[in-house]
Amino acid sequence: MNPVIKVNSVEKEYKHFHLGPIDFEVEKGTVVAVVGANGSGKSTLFKTLMGLAQPDNGYVQLFGLEEQKQVVDVKNRIGFAGSGLYHAFSQLTVNKLAEFVSHWYTTLEKDYYEHLLNRYEINGKEKFANCSLGTQKKVEFVLAMAHRPQLLLLDEPSANVDMLSQRRMREDLKSFMEQEENSIVISTYIQDEVKQMCDYICILDDGKIKGFFEKDEIRHLWARLWISSLPDQLKNDPRIWKVEEHPLQVITNQLPDIEEELLKCQVDIIRIKRLELDDIMEYMFIFNKKTTNTSGVLLKGDDCNHKNKVKQN
Ligand SMILES: Nc1ncnc2c1ncn2[C@@H]1O[C@H](COP(=O)(O)OP(=O)(O)OP(=O)(O)O)[C@@H](O)[C@H]1O
């Protein structure tokens, strides 16, 4: 495999925050969603990917190029949106900003840029600073797309953006991914974006990767089962994340194995329900935060890393 992004033992230290060490790879032709709570380090990770923040340790390799060559060879191939990239230039109008950005992205396509401005109902003559928050996000998105990059790094591109424009962004990203060599890394809180677009989910918690999952695989593995009894040998099994009483139910992240064991023990499985992605992520976060029993609910296990890791390079 020749990854588009290779993040190798990257660490970034701020006074009250430590990112990393982070290791992962993004395959060409895939979409990775970076999800995590506020302050978990998503923007810091994007900044290190873009070279806007220098890692204290480790390195980021883009398109398989050596670090020194990246600045020159890579910038036209990346579209970046987010992390207040244009705040220092916010007194420029949107059109002047595009002109300015075209010095970085030498392939900026004027016609495509105009098309995107119309599509997202952006007034190119308005000062960036005077645009609403949602419009600023749309401008960032348009400028990330307008030079037709191969890799999009999008840090919360649809925050504050209206529903119609969010849908258009999803359509545009879907078209973008029709080109085989294109890839996206996106941070988002919008479940539909994760569900509809992403192949992998990277979970960040307190500056560390808590899991790097293939989306379809986790949906296949996580389920709630209603059962007639819970055999003793499964009571402390780390594959069972939660047990609820009345009626007896278990949540597992290893459905095929647990189902087989229950059947071996002649337990009746009354019903199986696959979990939605939002529920799965919630369980992972609850677990990571080591939430304890609050209402007769039993949470199990002690170390999430060995359990929820379907794929982590
Ligand atoms: N330049 C900086 N100097 C000092 N601390 C910083 C700096 N940039 C980020 N941090 C700290 O790093 C931590 C992670 O911030 P970051 O913006 O990466 O989180 P995030 O996951 O993107 O959050 P959100 O979802 O709220 O946007 C925070 O505690 C933040 O205060």
UniProtKB/TrEMBL annotation:
InterPro entries, per database record: AAA+_ATPase (IPR003593), ABC_transporter-like_ATP-bd (IPR003439), P-loop_NTPase (IPR027417)
Keywords: ATP-binding, Nucleotide-binding
One Pfam family this sequence matches: ABC_tran
Molecular function in Gene Ontology: ATP binding; ATP hydrolysis activity
Protein name: ABC-2 type transport system ATP-binding protein
Residues of the ABC transporter domain: 4-231
Natural source organism: Gracilibacillus kekensis
Record flagged with keyword Oxidoreductase: no
SUPFAM superfamilies: P-loop containing nucleoside triphosphate hydrolases
Record's keyword annotation contains Endoplasmic reticulum: no
